[in-house]
Amino acid sequence: MNLEIKIFNTLSRKEEVLQASDPKHLKMYVCGPTVYDRPHLGNARSVVVYDLWFRFFKEVFTQVTYVRNITDVDDKINAAAKEQKISIQELTQKIIGFFYSDIDALNVLRPTFEPRATNHIAEMIEMVEQLIKNGFAYVSSGHVLFDVAAYKNYGELSNRTLDEMIAGSRVEIAAYKRNPLDFVLWKPADKDDDASSIFQSPWGDANHGGRPGWHIECSAMSLKYLGANFDIHGGGADLQFPHHENEMAQTRCAVKDSKFASYWIHNGFLTVDGEKMSKSLKNFITVKDLLEKGVDGIVIRYLLLSTHYRKPFDYNQKALEDAKKSVEKFYALFDENDLKSYQAGAHKKGLFLEVLTELSDDLNTSKTFALLHEKAKEIKHENNQDLKNQFLQVLDFLGLMDVSFFKQKNNLSDVDESFVNSKIEQRKIAKQEKNWALADQIRKDLLEKGIVLEDNKDGTFWKKS
Description:
The protein is about 45% helix and about 15% strand.
């Protein structure tokens, strides 16, 4: 599709027209979860944002390769496993399961590749060895560290001087470092580490082994699946420094003529009622928390996309209620026959193309949703069937299509009618026998299942609450 795509590039600090290295094949890498705890809303926002980028690029390019990694070896994982008194493998498998369960509820597509760090240790060791050989890394006390002073462009992505980076970040001061900013490529294992997080390498104590630093993991995996030069690297704003800065530095230094990613995308921070989300403030919200409160996944998805991805997003009750009302407003436009007759693969035109145009301006979801609300008014007044089909296409494309949500809100959810009718008959007999307590209990039991009984002169009827 011939569409000019504008992206705000963190590296240049300006909006640029996207020029993929291959006009038919877009390559994108996004930092995925570190699987030590269940995803919170901030994590979910990032996943949903890049899912929409992926969906958009799939419409524009002939081929899209989207890589989102899983970090399953990390200090936080080790600490969580020790605290829970379970093995690292048991912890990571459990959290990966939670991650999929939560993002599936948000209609998130699987990426093209989803590599796990523990399956790419050999590639990491090879990259570290190359950095030592090229003079950009050194071995000290069993650690291998990147020598920041040896790379003249360090700080280019975060746009900071070395002094600013030291002053503005939590830099580990250690005797084995030449420079406080030098970061770990490989570290020796602790004596009480789980064996599944210990890997043999050319460095350190051969009896204990070690594990990779966090930054080298993404470099090694992006290099394997996308090559030394690819189009887009994404992640949360909190990853810009030091994680992405370090990724870019070490990859460029390990691979001759590598520029790494051409465009860097960062989504904004998430707050809760204007405050930073943290467990100490008791405002830490996970996707699971909202799902268990009965908030539908597509409502959460709409909520997370309602603010432009680069802007900070504040979660609050009003924002949640507005998202719920918006989704319900959209679904109120359709009846069951509309959904049955809708075909996902139908010709894309009109509204669908308008939406792609809005999103081509740095994924402008704010304008996209405003456009949908305008079209919703038009459908409500004119009941244009062609426009209805286009609207459903857009909902599907945006990941906001959920037939079960429609049925639930329109009292069409699957109900065991024979069971309900048998209970109505039991209640009828109870009333004939003047067993009012049993009749009331049957009504109450059905109400708890979401079934409301209505008595009139023609008999008893039921409906979904």
